[in-house]
Amino acid sequence: MRHAFLLAAALCLTMNQAQAQDLSLYAAGSLKAALSDVAADFAETYGTPVATSFGPSGLMRERIEAGETAHVFASANMRHPRTLESTGKGGPVALFARNRLCGLARPEVEATSETLLDVMLDENIRLGTSTPKADPSGDYAFQLFDKSGHADALRAKALQLTGGPDSATPPEGRSTYAWVLDSDQADLFLTYCTNAVLARKEVPDLQIVQVPDPLSVGADYGLIVLDGAPPEASKLALHILSPAGQSVLAEYGFDAAAVPKGE
Question: Are 208 and 197 in contact (CB under 8 A)?
Fold first, then answer.
């Protein structure tokens, strides 16, 4: 009888621990505002809490590869979740949103869509980007450089100010990109248009400069459920892909799409 009681108690404890376990969502930093809202909506709707962690997609993938517990991973590109899929860590990978690059400029910088390339090439302009490989935003900026016809010059002058393992961290509560420009670390920064919108809400004097079509670079965002995740993780992924989740992403400036461009 005593053994049966202990077994029942152990089972009850295990069930309570499982029920108490939050889902773990790892996601790109550019998704922080949107997916924080989506996660809160999911928790309210289904009664399952979601613990979120945001950062550069490449560094988040490395943390998962190193053994950190993530149930769902939302990346700012398709490559990082596909890398996890190719090594048997989860899958399949689904595209769930698109973004694009914009220029974010300090108030005194004179730049338009038509003059953006000339401004980037100006030796007096400090051009900021995120860190390639660690953060897809940096990869996309360097792809833009490749399309410009001035790749070597732009790569050489680009200041990789964010998204790397040793990048400076903004003060608590501040937008990374608003802080970088507001603290005079760069004159012009190439970042996602959604980031630029959030930065200008914080610092209204900042300018958003649209990248001209010949230089435009699109960003496809990929989603994966990791092996070993509880069943609720698939429900969270579907919620992100659902009209409810997609509408929240759209409110923050993301484009919803089903198939990556060019694939």
Answer: yes
- Strand (E) or helix (H) holding 209: strand 207-210
Amino acid symbol at 83: T
Q: Is residue 262 part of a domain?
A: no
CA triple 59-62-67, angle to 5 deg:
135
Peptide bond into 92 cis (omega under 30): yes
Coil, helix or strand at residue 49: coil
Select from 139, 146, 151, 147 the least CA-distant residue to 190: 139
Residues 94 and 224 in one domain: yes
pTM here is: 0.80
**pLDDT confidence of residue 227:** 97
- Average pLDDT (109-132) is 98
Q: Is 2 helix (H, G, I), strand (E, B) or coil?
A: helix
**Rg of the Cα trace of the chain?**
21
As a whole number of angstroms, the distance between CA 116 and CA 241 comes to 35
65 with 15, same domain?
yes
User: pLDDT of 167-213, one tens digit each?
Assistant: 999 999 999 999 999 999 999 999 999 999 999 999 999 999 999 99
